[in-house]
Amino acid sequence: MKKVIFLFTLTLFCACASGGWRVVDGEEFTIEFPGEPKDTATMVGDAAGAKLYYQPIEGGIDSNIYYAVSLYSLPDSAELMGEFLDEMLLKDVEIYAWSMGAIVADSGKVVKSGVVEGREYKIFLAQNAGVLTMRKFVKGRHIYTLVVITANEFLDNSLIYKFLDSFKLK
Known about the structure:
Layout (H helix, E strand, L loop, with lengths): L1 H9 L11 E4 L3 E5 L4 E7 L2 E8 L9 E10 L11 H15 L3 E2 L4 E5 L2 E9 L6 E9 L2 E9 L8 H8 L1 E2 L1
């Protein structure tokens, strides 16, 4: 578990770009952030989690409010869920939305990162504050969650998918 957190945190130091979008190249994936991401990590028993996130400067030129990719390492393979994996991912998204007073707008459309199939969800934030676009991928013992939060006036901006589509599992 400590190795997972160390390797995830190490990706911060592998960011390659000067200004603007930065490629974070880790051992398991690559992703691009519109600026220098920050990191955080937690361990509870046999489970570990790590997150890279970026919050654009308020009033800046970025159309989104928040970007993040999280990695959760479980004691056993989540792929063992088999046909129930989609239900588990949706339930996880519903709990996430519920914790914020938000509403999940769909049951998750199929998306891919390389050959790995995942799901994309739209979550309407409370008090019509915006939309959260979330993607989830499962590979072995790891669950990857990508999040972009967008204010209502910028819902069709291309940076949402520039970030989400830049995520590549190795």
